[in-house]
Structure formats: C-alpha cells, structure tokens
Design brief:
This protein is 24% helix and 19% strand. By secondary structure, it is of the alpha+beta class. The strands form four sheets. An eight-stranded mixed beta sheet has the order 3-4-12-9-14-7-6-5. Strands 8-13-10-11 form a four-stranded antiparallel beta sheet, with no helix packed on it. It binds 2-oxoglutaric acid (AKG) and fe (ii) ion (FE2). The site of fe (ii) ion has 3 residues, from loops.
C-alpha cells in the first residue's frame, strides 16, 4: 500500500495515498432532479451516484439544483459591483478589524493556505468578502429563535458595506445565502441516504447551519507562480461546499497521480466538494480533495463559494455506518465550531492582522480597466 506522510494541523499522520484523494480524471455531473422526488427508489439511485462521486473524487457538479438562474446572476452582478468599490470603502469592512472573526473584506494577499501536505505562507492572489450564518439570512428561522451554544464563538454578526455604497447588496446576499443553505439542507438528506442512515438523520444538526459564504474575485495574474495563486492548494473545512463560478475557468482539483484536473465551468451547474468535517464523519470514506484556483486567462474571474456546515455545537465523530470493525478513527471527536475555527485561523485574516502591502500585490496582477488611473492627454 502506497503511503505518504500528511502534515496535518494536528501533527504528522502516515496514511494510505487513497485517504487523501480518490482516483479520477474527470469530475462527474450529478442531476438533482430527483432529490425531493416522492419515489424513494429514485432518491436512493441518486444517493448511490453521490456516494461514488464522494468516495472516488470528492468533487462533482450538480445540475437541476433548483436555484433560479436569475438569483445567481443577481448575486454575481452584486459581487462585481462590490469588488469595483474603491479599496478604502472595502477596507472599512477589513476582516482584521471586524468584531466577529472571519467576516468582512480580505484584500489581495490577505489570506494564505495551510494544507495537510504543505504550509504556504504566500498570500492568495484574490480578494474576498465573507459572511456567516445569521437568522437574517435563514429562510427557516422563526421569530424568537435562539442560536445553539457555541463555544467557538463562530456565530455572530456579519459586517456590511454601507447601504449607500451598494444599495440592495445586503438583501441580495442574504437571499442567495438562504436559498443555497436550503439546497445544502436538502443535499444533506441525500448524503444521509448514501451513508445508509435515515434521511432525517442530520436534520436536527442543521437547524442553524454553521455555514459561511464568500464572494471571491481573482484578477488575472501576470505570471504563473506556484507560490502565488488565486487560492493556493487547500481542502475546505465544513461539510461540503456549493460553488458558483462564472464562465472564466480557474478551479483545479488534485487527483491521486498528482495531476491538476480542471473543474471547467459548466453553465447551469454548481460545483460541490466534500469538506473535512464530512470526511471525518465518514472516517475518510468521503474525500476532502485538495484544490486550488489560478487565473491565467487574462480575464477577471469571480466565484461564490458557500461552505455548508452543521450547527456549531454538533459533534463530529465517525458515523456507525462508516466505521468497519477494528478500524481506528482518522480524527478525534470535535465540535464543528471548534474544528472550523481552528482551521480558518490558519488561513483567513485574523483580528488584528496588519494590512498586506497592497502596492506590491497590485504588481502581481493585471489591474483591470475600471480601476486604471486615466492619464490626461498632454
Ligand atoms: O474560486 C474557486 O473556484 C474556488 C474557491 C475555493 O476553493 C475556496 O474559497 O475555498
Ligand atoms: Fe476551497
């Protein structure tokens, strides 16, 4: 059995190569039309497909996911407007100054990735704006709802650019957040079926899903650089990610042969990938596959990941249906909040972090036309 040493956030682990990622050279497309079919057999068939994609690849596209194309377009337009704001206005929400951790704006080079296979101190060549779970963005929330206990302090107030800068931005993002979160809740029921559990197994753990979402902007890079990519190689930390990309390619997924497989945009789909907590829940049967994004197209690239997680007080430990006799746990039991907080702390801008050298960062990317300073004619 080929083994490799994983440098994890929790120390070195000697593991079989297959534990990191399955063997694939294409990313499957899964049709969700039957996700809420009254016919159990159809839902079961979908669950089998999902199991195969999660066990082998850890990534798949979803089509017929039920989210209106209009809303997705509205979200992308709002994101374009957001990133076009002058940097000073974006910096008013700088993540390093935010009261609540992991919320707000990340400038170019502000975040960096630490993965199980490498630690990369170089900053990501992307900008981001992050929000997290709030009752305001949850279509299922009822008046008087109280959030579960949260020892990791991961629930908390989002910070928003002033309404006058971007009228409607906050309501558009909340609407999008709520819709995609409900898609995540429905998807988790198919995951339960795929894992030989009752479909309702996770329902009580997603009453207040510990989820985050970010708008991402990847300016075109001047040169290909292993150190500086739009987002350097990493895994995601929550249960699964539902990613909306525009038509500009950039996302790549690592297979067992160390090849980067392009997750080329497919119109009408989201890309879904398994995150670490679902990998731990399945004791490694589902892969939390390493991926990166690098924009060498000469065009601007935008994406909107939604990191779907369970209530922050939910304990992540291998499910009975995923642990074979005598098999040991690949990870100690941990609450979702504690795990995600620790993982994000190695990656995201932290409160008090200094602002990166934005002038140096700008030299690594092509400044897009709208932000160019016009030189008056002589
Ligand atoms: O922009 C993308 O395509 C990927 C983003 C991503 O992997 C992340 O934010 O975790
Ligand atoms: Fe990611």
């Amino acid at each position: 059995m080929a083994t490799t040493t994983l440098k994890t956030r929790f120390g070195d682990l000697e593991v079989s190569k297959e534990i990191i990622q399955g063997d694939f050279d294409t990313i499957p497309v899964i049709d969700l039309a039957d996700m809420t079919s009254p016919d159990l057999e159809k839902r079961q068939k979908l669950a089998f497909e999902l199991y195969d994609a999660c066990a082998r690849v850890g990534f798949f596209y979803i089509k017929n996911h039920g989210i209106a194309e209009d809303l997705i377009e509205k979200m992308h337009n709002a994101s374009h407007e957001y990133f076009k704001l002058p940097v000073d206005q974006k910096m008013e929400c700088y993540m390093g100054n935010a009261k609540q951790a992991f919320r707000g704006y990340t400038p170019l080079l502000g975040s960096h990735q630490t993965t199980e296979i490498e630690e990369n101190p170089a900053g990501n060549l992307s900008e981001a704006f992050d929000i997290g779970y709030e009752l305001e963005g949850d279509k299922q929330a009822k008046p008087g709802d109280v959030l579960p206990e949260d020892t990791a302090s991961m629930y908390g107030g989002n910070i928003w650019p002033k309404e006058e800068y971007l009228p409607g931005f906050r309501s558009t993002y909340n609407e999008y957040f709520g819709e995609v979160m409900d898609l995540g809740r429905n998807l988790l029921r198919v995951f339960a079926l795929a894992l030989s559990l009752p479909e309702s197994y996770f329902d009580e753990m997603v009453t207040y899903p510990g989820s985050l979402s970010r708008l991402m902007y990847y300016p075109p890079q001047r040169v290909s650089s292993e150190a500086h990519q739009g987002i350097n190689p990493h895994t995601d930390y929550e249960c699964f990610t539902i990613l909306s990309q525009d038509s500009v390619p950039g996302l790549q997924v690592l297979n067992a042969n160390n090849q980067w497989i392009a997750a080329t945009p497919i119109k009408g789909t989201f890309v879904v990938n398994i995150g670490d907590t679902l990998k731990f829940w399945t004791n490694g049967k589902f892969k939390s596959t390493i991926h990166r994004a690098i924009n060498l197209t000469g065009k601007e690239r935008y994406s909107v990941p939604f990191f779907f997680g369970v209530n922050y007080d939910a304990v992540i430990k291998p499910l009975d249906t995923c642990i074979d006799e005598g098999e040991s746990n690949i990870h100690e039991p941990v609450t979702a909040g504690e795990y995600v907080k620790k993982a994000l702390s190695t990656t995201y801008v932290k409160q008090g972090d200094e602002v990166p050298d934005l002038a140096a960062a700008a030299k690594m990317v092509e400044i897009p036309a709208p932000q160019m300073i016009a030189i008056p004619a002589a």
